[in-house]
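B., you asked whether I could sanity-check this one before it goes into the benchmark set. Here's the sequence:
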Amino acid sequence: MKVAILAGGAGTRLAEETETKPKPMVEIGGRPILWHIMKHYSYYGYNEFIIALGYKGEYIKKYLMDYCSIHSNLTVKTKNGDVRMHENNNHPDWTVHLIDTGLETLTGGRIKRLAPHIGNQTFMLTWGDGLSDVNLDELLAFHRSHGKLATLTAVRPTARYGHLELNGDTIEVFSEKPQTREGWINGAFFVLEPGIFDYIDGDQTQWEKEPLESLARDNQLKAYRHNSFWQCMDTLREKHILENLWCTGNAPWKVRE
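And here's what the prediction gave me:
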């Protein structure tokens, strides 16, 4: 099964990092967040990726083209430029399709442009800026159990501000950044059938608007409830949260090999 990753947005709310690189290439623990996402899928046996490129897509192309040489020992002949790569069995066995989906294309349009590369088969989809420890085996089993066109992973993210429970003007409970107690949001990590392409008009379609709204109206959209870790990286603050988790050895998404 193929995994599509949207990696074409400009990431304007993370401008400190994305002025020079696309958001999926912002590093967590010395590796792009895109690499962390791909490692998660690979752990569950999904090793073929289709990456929708846009803003500074050449940066992602160069990283993946140079991946083996960057992470291997090399012998270089300076006289003729010959390079011999030393054997490295730690490289992931990935096949990565890098597809230019346009600079101004919206999320739905990017998905639609990937249709020829996905074919007539079930596929997975996520964004290139969010990490989770979602169990992909359980997610796929849930999708297959209901027979609908689309499954999204519903999450309840950590609240940004402290939570107060009041009795009049008395604070009975103070909890710093608790897990949100009500309200689920779209955490991506989709499983989709090719029929979803019929719900996308073109480049200026936003996946989170008309397509998902129409799928819901048609009873073709189901939610897989994920109660464990999920964190997007929209801001520098959120990058620091992920970086701190990784550097302290507490990253829930880290693959245990």
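One thing to flag: The two ends are 22 Å apart (CA to CA). Otherwise nothing jumped out at me.
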